[in-house]
Amino acid sequence: MFKLTFTFGMFNAALGVVCYATPAMYESGGIYFFLFAISSLILYLIHYRWSLLFQARMFLLAVIGYFAGFVKLIDPSLLFSPVEPTSQSFEIGVKMFGLTSLALFGSFIGITLGFRRSVNVYQNPMARISNVLKDWHLTYYLTFAVIVLTGHLSALSYGPTVFQGVYGTGEGQGQSLGNLQSIGVVCTVLNITAALFINRRKFLYGSIVAVSYFFVWGILIRGGRLEVLSGLLAIAICIPLLNQRITRVTKRQMLYIFLTAVFMESWGWLRSALTTVDSEAMFDGYKRLADSGIYFAGTVSGIATSFANTLHMVEGNAITLIFGKSYLEYIPRTPPEFIYPGRPPDYSSMFENYGYAAIGGFFELAEAYLNFGLMGCLFVPLIISFLLSRVYQNAFRGGLFWFLILTAILSVFFRGAWYQSFAFYKSLFTGIGVYLFVMAVISFFRTSLSKQKSFGRIAIGGNK
Predict the structure, then answer these.
(1) Read out DSSP for 334-356?
(2) Whole-structure pTM over 0.85, yes or no?
């Protein structure tokens, strides 16, 4: 299976380079390019049928560029977003398609180099984590409090519910700590882990209440989606990992995933329309756009816009390649804005500076292309997938530190994949911070308890 997938993937990457170099070939032979690309994607997904994580990685990387290629296959004059039509030329759409094929092969190589299924595990993760934490009751109550707190702070930062105000109008108090929801997700997984280890039903019920408050009241009902999706993914992957199980997708679960995706995409539309238009206008919106020559796919179209804008700016010489500058700026962007107000801005803001409109973030392949051009779309996905798979393997071997690092990465998985790769980088500090916090609190209570026992022995000895 590996040789077949590798061969198809390599050939598909070569065809992607051809599309990138000579987009005109797609106009006459686009159906063959596209069908081969979809066949290669299906092979990738079948090859990783044993891992939900790697399937999600490949699918999220593919859907943006392949959607643009699909729209241009139907009709070169069609648009894939209602925003910034000037950057959605046939040539740009085909280049997006070709670069995506190259990126998928790079990601496949990265995962292959980073993860080996036949790994020797001397002790399952649950046992090794238990050896570190030991006091699961303390861990449970500590993470429970953090979950409730992050839920409350998330509600304040997002503002009113979508039934009371329009999402994205800035009515909330803002968020001084950018990884707040990530902290909540990491503590959610750790809290559920503690509840399962304590193995008493009331603790599991308590986890369900706290997690529901965080995800639903703190985020979802106020218009947030990505953090909820990422949190569910983190739970689905990390909890089975405790017993050395790799999460895979069954046919029934595929239906649940599809329904969840439909709900979240519908919620993305509804959150900005519940207080402004009637339901008929909401459900007819997609049809009206299609009739006008715009194939709008919600979030996918928004992210595709940033990808198209970046290619259009580079190809039109509005900007030049920056050769790693945006990645080096991750370092000064690490501190929260309230600590370092002068830190470099998010690169998604550059579109407005150059007169482009955008409704998405700064897609992984857009950033890779802005830095290193064609080769960036091969090597950046390779490196990200390699690091992701190595962290997954280390967590699979066991140990609290890598378990929390993996959970932190998964807590921003959708945002990192589509909106900004910086989220993956920042999540590392979230995982490290939660690890140090939990260990410090547990150490403090252990020391206090040890001192109390020592004083008790002295007192008993003195009475004798």
Answers:
(1) SS-TTT-TTSPPPGGGHHHHTT-
(2) yes
